[in-house]
Amino acid sequence: MNTSQLESLLNxxxxxxxxxxxxxxxxxxxxxxxxxxxxxxxxxxxPYKIIQISKQSIKxxxxxxxxxxxxxxxxxxxxxFAADMSPIDSQVERYIQDFKAxxxxxxxxxxxxxxxxxxxxxxxxxxxxxxWCSEQAHLALGTLLLVAASMEIDVCPMTxxxxxxxxxxxxxxxxNLRTVLIAPIGIRxxxxxxxxxxxxxxxxDLLHIEV
Length: 211
Prior knowledge:
Layout: H1 3-12, H2 26-36, E1 48-53, H3 56-62, E2 77-84, H4 88-102, H5 107-121, H6 126-150, E3 154-155, H7 163-170, E4 177-186, H8 204-207
Antiparallel strand pairs: 1-2, 2-4, 3-4
Helix pairs in contact: 2-6, 4-5
């Protein structure tokens, strides 16, 4: 993909206000999530999960906790990014096992990696862990938006929801998860007034500071 193609994709995507009734094939959704998993992440830990919802009954239950935003109900799939609130040490240990399965390094190196990661992260309390996990989820969202555009899948990233209520509806506390953000996906409706409007963004001079 060259710069011109990338610029075209970034201009094509927008935060959809109204989705059509078209459904995205499951294999495309699977690929979208798979490629999102290649996003940058601190230490490579990916301390979040992506929950995929296609059942209308669940979407309907979430709608009252989404400030009435209809696109939470009317979409192909609703994706929920949730922070992994399980013990950090266990997340690190799982990662090291995955690392061993993919690399052939000396055991001392693995031990040093594990020790270094645990030392860097062990001081986090629940509040700081959720904040840190949320930052990683937002990094992944950026990847999802670009990958989705390359697949001609529309997305509307959203944080304007009652996250605690989402946790309750989805039963996330028992899974050591907490809602961070949602991303309804689908195909834009032809009547969406924002579908063909130009983007309004800061100029480079307003966006950029050189020091």
